[in-house]
Structure formats: structure tokens, C-alpha cells
Amino acid sequence: MKTDVTSTLERTLALRSVPLFSDLEPADLYAVAAVAEDAAFAPGEYLGVAGDLGEDLHVVVRGTVRVEHGDPPHEFARRGEGEVVGEMSVVSRSPRAASLVAHTDVRTIRLSRPRFESVVRDRPSVGLSVMRLLADRATEATRSHEETTAHHG
């Protein structure tokens, strides 16, 4: 992983198009961007490993991330521009349920757990957006499990 250097304004513009942050006022969005960091990953590089405690969530700015679990790894989702990865472990404070692997060159905006928690405390609308996102991900995981079971059952 390497880090890029972009301005807080550039991060603000990128975050504005992300559903998780779209309800924020411009000043709040700028505050989130100010505490975030840029990260870049080469194809095959891990953003997070299943079983590890997730300390960061990533907003995908460019590229595609594979979400994998199992041994051997099974891809059950792909996340692209404007989508968030790593949020489940950050919110639940539990080990990652899946690995996050750069499928292409990936650029993200990374928020550490403490900074993310601070954002949620200061801006309750982000907490509500996270709850919606987690509900969507739970539904997606259930569907993926049902499809896998139907194919192997």
C-alpha cells in the first residue's frame, strides 16, 4: 500500500458523491475529508484480511475491490467507485468476516476507526447512513449464502 497526496478539497469532492456521506452539509463533509487519508493499492494487494481486526474503512475512489471469504477464497462481491469497504468490522469491533483485495489499481479515502467514531458522534446523520449500509450488506450476505447453498445443496 502506498499513500497519495491529495488535498482536503479533493477528498471532499470525492466524498460528496458517496451515499454514506451524501446527507452531510458541506462543512461537515469537509471536516470528514480533513481527518481522512489517501491510500493506493496495487492489484492483488490486501486492504483487509479476514480474521484481522478491522481498524480502517475505505471509500473506493478509483478501481475495483474483491470481497472474498473461505478457503480457498470465494469472491462474493465487488465494490467500485463510490462504495465503502471495511465498515462492518470497524462498526462491530470484531474480526473481518471477509478479505478485501484490490482487483485493479485501487485508490481509496481511508478513515481510521477512532476518526470514523468521532465523525459518527459529531454527525448523527452519518450513523444513520451506516445503519442503512449495514442492513443492505446483511441482506446481500444472506442472498449470497442462499445462492451458495442452493448451488451446493
What does this structure look like?
The chain is globular and about 50 Å long. The protein has helices at 8-16, 26-35, 87-92, 113-122, 124-152; strands at residues 37-41, 46-48, 56-62, 65-69, 74-79, 84-85, 99-102, 106-112. Helix content is 42%, strand content 25%. The chain contains five helices and eight strands; from the N terminus they run H-H-E-E-E-E-E-E-H-E-E-H-H. The mean pLDDT is 86. The protein is an alpha+beta fold and 153 residues long. The longest helix is centred in the last third of the chain and has 29 residues, at 124-152. Helix 4 (113-122) packs across helix 5 (124-152). The strands form two sheets. It has a four-stranded antiparallel β-sheet with strand order 1-8-3-6.
Walk me through the topology:
Layout: H1 8-16, H2 26-35, E1 37-41, E2 46-48, E3 56-62, E4 65-69, E5 74-79, E6 84-85, H3 87-92, E7 99-102, E8 106-112, H4 113-122, H5 124-152
Antiparallel strand pairs: 1-8, 2-7, 3-6, 3-8, 4-5, 4-7
Helix pairs in contact: 1-2, 4-5
Going across the biggest sheet, name each strand in turn. 1-8-3-6
Q: Give the overall silhouette.
A: globular
Q: Radius of gyration, rounded?
A: 15 Å
* Portion in helices: 40-55%
Instruction: List low-confidence stretches.
Output: none
The protein's oligomeric status is single chain
In terms of DSSP E residues, the strand content is 25-35%
Order of helices and strands: HHEEEEEEHEEHH
Secondary structure: number of strands: 8
Largest sheet, strands/sense/barrel: 4 strands, antiparallel
How far apart are the first and last residues' alpha carbons, in Å? 39 Å
Mean pLDDT: 86
In DSSP terms (H or I, runs of 4 or more residues), the helix count works out at 5
Broad structural category: alpha+beta
